[in-house]
Amino acid sequence: MYIEKNQKIHLTRRPQGLPVSEDFELVSDSIAELKDGEVLVKNLWMSVDPYMRGRMTDRKSYIAPFAIGEVLEGGAVGEVVESRNPSFPEGTKVSSMQGWREFFISNGEGLQSLPETTAPVQSFLGVLGMPGMTAYTGLLKIAELKEGDKVFVSAASGAVGAIVCQIAKLKGCYVAGSVGSDEKESYLKDELGVDAVVNYKKTKNLKADIAKACPNGIDVYFENVGGAHLEAVLDLMNDYGRIAVCGMIDQYNATTPVAGPSNLSQLIIKKLKMQGFIVFDHWDEYPAFVQEMSQWLQGGQIVARETVYDGIAQAPDAFIGLFTGKNTGKMLVKLAL
Ligand SMILES: NC(=O)c1ccc[n+]([C@@H]2O[C@H](COP(=O)([O-])OP(=O)(O)OC[C@H]3O[C@@H](n4cnc5c(N)ncnc54)[C@H](OP(=O)(O)O)[C@@H]3O)[C@@H](O)[C@H]2O)c1
């Protein structure tokens, strides 16, 4: 099938600080006929995620930087619309890392058929995909959550944070979180059953407000933000507490070196464990996660909100919006019906 216009987003230059729309360009090309062994995939949804900001900077990390003048990459779900590969017949729903484009040709490498479930396909970019798996792994495995733990979650209304809050509630924990708006505070309290919420954008004293939200201290901190949040929480941790370091979004757009917390000695005084992790190191446990999370979703014990931008041209705005709190739940771009 010849596709005359395949739109995609290129990175035009490396962002300085908060990314701006001029860092991105909408371009289009055509897609040729398939060869034997290939499939044509039409992307239905693509994901924007905070880690992509790191790949826009030219530095050594756990994953290579994006190239300037090339199409960006990231999670996407799509449908095989033409196939010359028996492993992926026409109509197969697939996930890939070929986001930021409307169509692509694949020889099957890096393409996964989506498991059978009643959940909508875009769930595999959110609650049933990488962010959900991050919440599950970070909380249950890295932070070794136990029933009755007092848990604090930063960026608590986002793709990862909202799932962390709900799993912790399911496991019989006291849960408090921080967010950047009144609407998000209501979402956490009224829809997710979180016990206490701090609006970090409104507070005059972050540590005092987190202390108020966590009157019996913190056993588990699920860290998504870093900076002032980490410093405040370290002082409020209980003895033998655990900190799962998932992300530090407060630092992703920094243009100068970031100061560390002044109170790391709390790790010694309180005998804390603090561990960073990358979800892909735990991917062998993904099938078990999908099974358990699917049951929670079907039983209504976990709900997953999405914030949706429409069309590939909106993808840069959706991405930039992650850093200004435009999303509640998973930020997604809908590419086709
Ligand atoms: N380790 C891993 O394998 C792994 C995997 C996935 C994600 N992560 C990390 O997990 C974190 C959450 O990711 P996500 O996909 O769930 O994103 P997300 O929470 O859905 O979106 C980002 C949210 O962070 C908040 N935020 C943005 N800038 C902030 C700042 N300077 N200070 C405090 N909050 C800020 C915003 O909400 P507010 O309105 O509340 O500010 C925004 O909605 C990120 O740090 C990400 O890098 C790590």
Helix-strand blueprint:
Blueprint: E1 3-11, E2 24-31, E3 39-47, H1 51-55, E4 76-83, E5 93-96, E6 103-106, E7 112-113, H2 130-142, E8 150-153, H3 161-170, E9 174-179, H4 182-191, E10 196-199, H5 206-213, E11 218-223, H6 228-236, E12 237-245, H7 266-269, E13 273-276, H8 286-298, E14 306-310, H9 315-321, E15 330-334
Parallel strand pairs: 8-9, 8-11, 9-10, 11-12, 12-13, 14-15
Antiparallel strand pairs: 1-2, 3-4, 3-6, 3-15, 4-5, 5-7
The protein binds NADP nicotinamide-adenine-dinucleotide phosphate.
NADP nicotinamide-adenine-dinucleotide phosphate (NAP) binds next to helix 2.
Plain-language structure description:
- By secondary structure, this protein is an alpha/beta fold.
- The chain folds into 2 domains: 3-126 and 304-334, Medium-chain alcohol dehydrogenases, catalytic domain (Quinone Oxidoreductase, Chain A, domain 1, Alpha-Beta Complex), CATH 3.90.180; 130-280, 3-Layer(aba) Sandwich (Rossmann fold).
- 23% of the residues lie in helices and 26% in strands.
- It contains 9 helices and 15 strands.
- It has helices at 51-55, 130-142, 161-170, 182-191, 206-213, 228-236, 266-269, 286-298, 315-321; strands at residues 3-11, 24-31, 39-47, 76-83, 93-96, 103-106, 112-113, 150-153, 174-179, 196-199, 218-223, 237-245, 273-276, 306-310, 330-334.
- The longest helix has 13 residues, at 130-142.
- The protein starts with a strand and ends with a strand.
- The structure holds NADP nicotinamide-adenine-dinucleotide phosphate.
- NADP nicotinamide-adenine-dinucleotide phosphate (NAP) binds at residues 49-51, 131, 134, 155, 157-161, 179-181, 184, 224-225, 246-247, 249-250, 277-279, 322-323, 325, 327, 331.
